[in-house]
């Protein structure tokens, strides 16, 4: 999928521009590298870039001075801090010092790319800053709205009105919105409380009092994963830091409970809402977690929340790998780096243990075995069929399902049913070499085609 946006330009400051990680060279349409030269930095660049990013400075200047200088010279230009070094990554402090945001590479490269795009979008459509994204799944025909709804059209860069305050939203309009694959609409931030009141009233009406809207669930899931994983980046073993990790995990467990609370959820519409998300590290964890839970529910496994927990943590071990091996996808890694990469399922458990997170045996097995293959060619232990738990097999399907349904440049996006069909096709072509459990795939494929699980 290609998207035409106005060109985004960026200046990246580094002590030695030669040290800039390669992946940043194509992060925007125009990327310029400049060394830290305080005198030169006092003159605003001409033309002004869409954004400025800084790699950790050397001895020439402190990070605080750097932020203050650039803020003074470029008061309206978004300012980002980029680092590959966990030790210099203190997001809160960096933002307090004057940066708009900070990103830890390579894990947060896509987040950085997205922040750049969002900033350029805000420059084009400043009113977008005043809007909050809400999920279409939370809207219902017939009920009068006391807030307006807008849709964003990327092709012409416009935010258009799809429903006015004071009007009910009709079924045909809602269907049209869904057909145009707008999973997300926008509500003005002054009206967002009204939107939450609307969803709460609706949930009560259908007997789900105390439940939360998809909009809120998605928001809490995404911000929870971010906080939990950034906390894991910090290898702090001081006793008083464990409480925080535990509290973050508890919050995630609460969000997960809400996914599985409703015994008979409309799995297909939930899946449709989630697919086509960005393919970055955090989204991968939160998506895999939700997919594993939904698949578990479709297959009527006991306590599908355990699957969600395993999905949430399955790849955090990647954060403990040497930088060159810290990839989501091992393609293109040298044999040595590949060997390191294959350690990530076990590392995920080690990190969770180090953070003193209490995980059940069942969750730990699913995490460690998520790359095992039925024919024994997987890793880390090369287990075969009956030795791999069914949770691990479901998790492996959720993992692969997210790879197929998240946005990836140059690849067509698949609907949930198409993605499941594709996984089924790939694994049944040569059943002797199937990576995934064909029987589970077959049952899930039936559910996604509107049938029963058996
Ligand atoms: Fe993995
Ligand atoms: Fe994964």
What are the SSEs and their pairings?
Blueprint: E1 9-14, E2 30-35, H1 38-41, E3 51-54, H2 63-73, E4 79-83, H3 91-96, E5 101-104, H4 109-124, E6 131-135, E7 149-153, E8 158-163, H5 171-179, E9 184-188, H6 192-205, H7 214-233, H8 242-261, H9 267-274, H10 281-298, H11 304-313, H12 335-341, H13 344-354, H14 361-368, H15 390-405, H16 416-428, H17 438-448
Parallel strand pairs: 1-2, 1-3, 3-4, 4-5
Antiparallel strand pairs: 6-9, 7-8
Helix pairs in contact: 7-8, 7-10, 8-11, 9-10, 10-11, 10-15, 11-14, 14-15, 15-16, 16-17
Bound molecules: fe (ii) ion (2 copies).
What does this structure look like?
With 454 residues, this protein is of the alpha/beta class. The protein contains 17 helices and nine strands. It has helices at 38-41, 63-73, 91-96, 109-124, 171-179, 192-205, 214-233, 242-261, 267-274, 281-298, 304-313, 335-341, 344-354, 361-368, 390-405, 416-428, 438-448; strands spanning 9-14, 30-35, 51-54, 79-83, 101-104, 131-135, 149-153, 158-163, 184-188. Helix 8 crosses helix 11 (304-313), helix 9 runs antiparallel to helix 10 and helix 10 runs antiparallel to helix 11 (304-313). The protein is globular and about 70 Å long. Mean pLDDT is 85; it is low at 1-5. One fe (ii) ion is lined by residues 314-315, 344, 370-371.
